[in-house]
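User: What would this chain look like folded?
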Amino acid sequence: MRQRLVKQDKAQQSFLQNISHELKTPVMVIRSYAQSMLDGIYPKGTLDESILVINGEAERLEKRIRDLLYLTKLNYLSTKEKKRESFNLTELLEQRLERFQCRRPELIWTVKLVSFCTTGDREQWGVAIDNMLDNQIRYAVKRIVLSLDALADTTEKVLLRIWNDGNSIETELIDSLFEPFQIGKDGEFGLGLAIVKQITEFHEAKIWASNEADNEEEGVAFYIELG
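Assistant: Here's the prediction, encoded as structure tokens.
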């Protein structure tokens, strides 16, 4: 019991430190740029370029706050009665997929989806799919493969697989990939996959990732098993 409490305390301290870092960094950039511009100095050389930096940091800060609030909301909802509604998961995937295909039209998308209806919180699954696809288009080089197939031993469960041809994930990071503020290849912390993990657990689904090839091409695959 004591070891578990100590571990939880360390995890909480680390979480708070990462939150502080992720919120303070863009604020510091915005303030320093704004002060320089008030002094008649444009840090990026021109007014327009300097404003673009401020806008980019503001967007980054907004996303961090939005994700943090949503993660807090999920933690709160986990103590309440679960919302259940019937919806078509395939249609939800197709709707979300269309948005992300437009963001990187140069990518080759291979999509194969069986028709599947499930019960749960449709809004939460929409967020989970968005976060998964956002992760894919950030790391994919040329190709993404998305499939939804019924499991061989049952018609009541399906396996969602999303594969991209990006760089493999370091072996030591696979197990902690879905923890809050996991560091990505660009050195930034993130909450997106942690939110996906919370949503899958909320719906008693399973999620994992692995380095694997698709048509002899190396990449990374993410799986969600749900029913």
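The mean pLDDT is 84. If you want, I can go into more detail on any region.
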